[in-house]
Amino acid sequence: MYIPTHHALANDDAARTLIESHALGAWVFQGPDGLVANHLPFFLERGRGAHGTLIGHVSRANPAWRALQAGCPSVVMFRGAQAYVSPGWYPGKSAHGRVVPTWDYVVAHAHGVARAVHERDWLLHMLNRLSNAHEAPQPQPWRVADAPADFIERLLRGIVGIEIPIDRLESKLKASQDEDPADRRGTVAGLRQAANEDARRMGEWVEQALGADAGSSAA
Question: Which tens digits make up the pLDDT trace of 159-187?
Fold first, then answer.
């Protein structure tokens, strides 16, 4: 991924936090017949490996796990907030007119070699980690053990685990950092008024980046 210095996310911990809060990843690897792409929810085990380990699963009927080749690299892409940025929000539009639209976003890419996992205990552990993480905000969180044991056993036979130790973690925050400060403030104001919640969240990223840059300049 192309990452200009001023578009780099703060650090790997920020990238891991992004993965945890936007767990649906676009998993891509080279299969014997071409690129294979799937969208899967992953759980990030932070303490396993240099950059953490992703665990998830696919249906046993999904041919992706059969297409994995030994040593073949994978990338899993996680996207956070994103928004179109209108030049109509820029004071520069009326001042000089030298403005164009752009698109702001925050993403993390996790690179590693994936393996398929069939062990029943591993699969059950993965399902517990994944469901517990995403049920945590619920007032009465559902647990795997809440379902009948024979039902869970049948489901376990119908899935294949995917494990990806992260060899390299890339992240990018494109939050109008290369625009004039006044135009960046206009972007924050415009995104705050957006009907789309994702765009409003992107406005918070732009505002944080603007504040961080202002603090760096003052220092």
Answer: 999 999 999 999 999 999 999 999 999 99
